[in-house]
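Example 3.
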Amino acid sequence: MAGLQVCSVLVTGANQGIGLGLVRHFLGMPNPPKWVFAACQDPKGQRAQELQNLASKHPNLVIIPLEVTDPASIKAAAARVGEHLGGSGLNLLINNAGIMKLNSLDNETLEDMTQVYTTNTIGPLLLGQAFLPLLKKAAQGSPSSALSCSKAAIINMSSSGGSIEEVYLWNYGQAVSYRCSKAALNMLTKCQSLGYRQHGVLCVALHPGWVQTDMGGAGSQKVGVSPWQVPQSPCADFPWEGRELLP
Amino acid sequence: MAGLQVCSVLVTGANQGIGLGLVRHFLGMPNPPKWVFAACQDPKGQRAQELQNLASKHPNLVIIPLEVTDPASIKAAAARVGEHLGGSGLNLLINNAGIMKLNSLDNETLEDMTQVYTTNTIGPLLLGQAFLPLLKKAAQGSPSSALSCSKAAIINMSSSGGSIEEVYLWNYGQAVSYRCSKAALNMLTKCQSLGYRQHGVLCVALHPGWVQTDMGGAGSQKVGVSPWQVPQSPCADFPWEGRELLP
């Protein structure tokens, strides 16, 4: 964390859980970003109440409406962020928004497979495309030649549940659609890392652990300290306790 | 190949390419299956002409209409196969049907990501669900206690293009949607292997190599002999030259 210096960051799914925790972390840094963009589906709704409270105290927090399954919404969000940034670029895109359904092999459906994949995998692809110009601009404006989160990066929030080798927590409802979407997200991240490296954009997937959130539920474990309190990070200068999966 | 003895096999996407090659292989075995079910989208169409020719010569070949993206079509196919089998089970389900789009990171779309995933990943899930009762019946009727293709198995046709480590042929058009779908298919296969083992059903994913077919295109390489001529197999008794990816 000590090494992380970002002027701007966008977090998707920022109104709750890990996303909200990350927003709180960035706002509380000794040297906070000039812009923290918190994207969520319904910025004025009841479920964004905490985000609204934070925004009233932190003028550098901007809430952005975003539906990650809708290409038009993604493009509109990128345009809005670009307006706020003026001529500057975006340092960090954190694709955190995601859903999980505890479907087993027996009761998994076409509809749920499609919905989970669209949110967890296609969304991060489309967000990468839409924000690439701003990420490239940040990379071009950085004095560092090395890839880093302080320069320009895409962080895809994955899971060891998407590791074919580990199949983390298989007995926790199987969650076939979720696992398939996260395995695909890991592959997408690898593709992004191969394709965007030339533009100076770091692309990594992270496993945050089983965190106590709405999604994590009652069975989740708070391992060590919460992610936004961790002083060391496995992913260069990214403030996260989870394991780096890729590249 | 020498050890393979199946009474019944179903191949999806059987009217061309690898699927048609597999059908030819099974029909040409010294001890051919009692039933070879060749599933394709339009059994009476021009693109199934070779399959129709084969069926006129081989009474054990049954052409089954199947759209792998349509749950109702899958259920109808399972019912039809069940009728042919009478009280017997199905030994082998080969999920071969698949599509590829040479989209790059830049021009990949929500629509193509969805279509490729539905065909390459969701289809094999739904086919596994629909044919599980027949596969279980075959497993129960087998004298062998060990898992094998001769007893009851699901073979998912994957690709090293879906290997996150290898990213096989990255420069061949990137094919992001295809890679993500195959990485997800590998995960699905792992889930099926964990879930269906208790029923005596072997589940594996195979990389067939870059074969000279419509999909493989002009750049494909015919490595060694064609897959349905190979006498040895890496996947127990399955007649295939490709590498076994899972489990």
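Chain B has a mean pLDDT of 88. Strands of chain B lie at 8-12, 35-40, 61-65, 92-95, 153-157, 202-207, 243-246.
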